[in-house]
From TrEMBL:
Disordered, as annotated region: 1-24
This protein's name: DNA-binding protein
Natural source organism: Amycolatopsis alkalitolerans
Keyword DNA-binding carried by entry: yes
Alphabetical keyword list: DNA-binding
UniProt signal peptide: none
Limits of the HTH LytTR-type domain: 374-481
Amino acid sequence: MTGTVPPLTIAPTRPGGREAADASLVTTSTRAVSRAWESFAAGEDIETGVRPEILASWYRCRDRYEVDRTLDVAPGARGDDAQQNDNGVIFTVLGGLGALAGQQVERDGAVVTVTDGDGRVLGAWGDPAAQRRAELHNLAPWSSWSEANTGTNGMGTALELSGPVTVTGPEHWCEAFHQWSCAGISIRDVVTGSPVASINVSRWNASLSEFVPVWLTKAVACVEQEIYRRAVYEADKVISEFTRKCAQSSGPVMAMDRGGKVIAANGEAVTLLGLTGETPLLAGAIEPAERWVPDISGLPDVVRWAKDRARGTAQWSGFACLPVSPGEEATPLTMRPVVDSGHVVGMLCVIGVQDGEPYDRGMEADVGLIPRRVIGTRNDRLVLLAPSEIRYAEADRNTVWLITDRGRVQAATRGLENVERLLISSGFRRVHRRFLVNLRRVAELERGIKGELFLIMDSRSHDLVPVSRRHAPELRRLLGV
């Protein structure tokens, strides 16, 4: 580990030790951000003057999480230790990295912290004086620094985004933290894409070197090796259980990882799902990049529900009825967990079988309120959109593009599934694995040469949105055609 990650340098190289390296955070740029913060905190909606990722965070803190901007002490974290138990090896590697980095930054008056995926601080290392100052704000183990609890900050905001995040001075949502400079990065599960942990560097009343985000990126790459090894190990366990199940059953069966991606499928399932006979799923996709995302509406919610209900018990089973084959009625899918050391590492899905606890769609339909605005970014500016302005959303891997009345805008929220959850209560529906449309904005329907269905969202631009065969019947029902 030490040979992979270079030493951490957090301060500009200047002669004279800490005093010479320190520089006040009060600069021309921070004054401008401070003025923007005062306007925004007073209730104004602004679109410029602050970096887009910071302004998007401010909107989350003010409008979604309703974080008190006068908060000066982070609240204590909940006592649930489920994440720590499930990711113990990862936290061990990350803790060793944090301790090593803490020794390296001690002379520069900084603190290195590690959190779990919920923003709960697990450890802090660094300059003792800086740690005592940080503890005045409860920047210490077992405190919660998620955005939902403590506003914009290096740890919490990193958990909301991919890649390194810097939060300097008045970019923090809570005024009491305006004299801190922070840089953080999240470590994400390669299977689910959700944050597992974060590592952060904080410094009082002084800037951080531009090399800190680079160091954080390399540190994460080191930890992600453990995550990748775990993903491969889990896939091997799931495929072994899948092979055993297929020997007992002649019907269609597929095996999924914890994120709902298909790792393996037998010949009957491959045919039913319309896949080619040469798919790597027949042999089993050990590599995460080779796994298949099924275009079955509602399946991700069912997998999450089953994982939660199983609670590490291999004997549990549950079923849901979903439209598996295009143009056909909903088919029962029975979910059976694959468990290793008390943790669900995957799911076996037996198609056409109804067994166990029935899926309650109401339990998973927590779509929240219709959003006041949807936040996007374009040319380093934040774009505030009403849901009615958005015609459709298109996914490019984990990046989502919103096609709107004001042009093409990148969504601040990553992942089409997350954007779908945000907009489903505003009349948006998935019509393809890459497209989400505003049903109120569908202008025309067009058939292709081979009977394919396309949506025309604007008759002037004639933009075509493809509809997958799987989603076509439900779409026709919703549109009344």
